[in-house]
Request: fold
Amino acid sequence: MDATPAPSPARSKTTSSARSPRRHPEALRRLLKVELAERSYTLSIGSGLLADTATYAELRGKTLRVVSDANVAARYLDPLLDALGLTREHAFILPAGELQKTWANAEAVLDWLLGQRLARDSILIALGGGVIGDLTGFVASIYQRGIAFVQIPTTLLAQVDSSVGGKTGVNHARGKNLIGAFHQPIAVFADTDTLNTLPPRELSAGLAEVIKCAMLGDAGLFARLERDVDALLALDAGVLGEAIERCCALKARIVALDERESLAGGPRTLLNLGHTFGHAVETWTKYETWLHGEAVGLGLAMAADMSMRLGWLKVEDAERCIRLIERAKLPIAPPTGMTPDDFRTLMARDKKVAAGRLRLVLMRALGEAATTADFDVTALDATLDHFCNTPPHASPLTPHAA
Reply:
C-alpha cells in the first residue's frame, strides 16, 4: 500500500505548548450557515484561516487527526498542525490524484485510525481537494458507525462544491462515487490563500463548478462571470471571494431543501448539471487524464447544447455557456476516440438512472435547471454526435487530450 502515515519532519518534534501560536491579521471573512437542524454547520470563507489558531476554537480539547495528500501536505500540513497543536504523527498522507479515491485507500486510513485506537468522540480533518474531502468524509461516516469530520478545502472546486453538502465516497471501476454515504461535516474552513498555489489547470477545473452554479441557479452570477472570468483566472482575491460565497450560498440553500437527494428530481439533483456527461468521460479515461472539473466543464457544454436542441434554451444562451466554458480554459470536446455509444453505455450506469430510465439535469433557461427523464432521445443522440464527430469539436483543448 502506497498510502502511509505522514513521515516525521526534519524539524524537532516539539509539543504544542512549546510552539508560539500563530494569529493572522483580521481580513474579510464570510460566514454562511448550512441549515440542517441538528446537523447544521458554518462555512467560513476568507484569507489566512488555515494557519490561524482562532479558526479552530470549537475544536479545542478534542482528539484530532488529519488526512491529506502529498502535494497539499508539502505546502499546508505544517502550518495546520502548528495551529492545531499537533505533530506529523497525527497526520496520514495519501498520494495525490483522483486515482487515489479508492476503497483500498479508505481501508488504509481506517487501519491507521484503528491502530491508534481512536475513540468515537474524535474528529477527522480533511486537508485537500475533493478527493481527500470525499474519502476522509467517507471514512468518518463508517469508522465506529460514524465520527465527526471537518473540511479544509484547498482547491477552488472543493471550496465551491465538494466540501459543502455531505456527499462522501470513493470511486469504483464501474463508475464514479458508486460507493459512499451522506455525512455532513461539522465545519468548513475555506482559506482563499490556498488558491494562490493552484496550478492553472486546477484553477480552471474549479471554475467549472462556479460556472455550473451560475448556469443552474444564478443568472446574475453568470453575467458577472462573463465579465470577470479573466480576473478569476488571475486570482483576483475580491472577485474570487464573492464567487465562492455566491456558489456556497446557492448550494447551502439547495442542500437544506433536499439533504440526501432523496426527492426524485428534487432540488439537490440540480447540482448534477453536466455531471452525467462528465462522469462518463472520467470513467472512460479511467480517472487518469482528465480532472473532474474538466469533465464537468465538457458536461456543462453538452447539457447546454442538448437543452438548446430540445427548444428549452435559447440558441444564443447555449452559445454564451459554451463560450464561457472555453474562456475558462476548459475542454469543450470529448477525449479523442470516445464515441456516442461509449457515452450511452456509461451514462446508463449513472446513479440518477431510475426504473431503467436515464434522468438528466438540463436547462430551461439561463439560471434555471430541471431534472427530467422525459426528453426526446433524438436530442441526446444529436448532442452526442455533434460533440464526438463534428469539427471543430473533434478534439479537446491541447492540455486536456486523453
Remarks:
- Residues 7-27, 393-402 have pLDDT under 50 and may be disordered.
- The two ends are 27 Å apart (CA to CA).
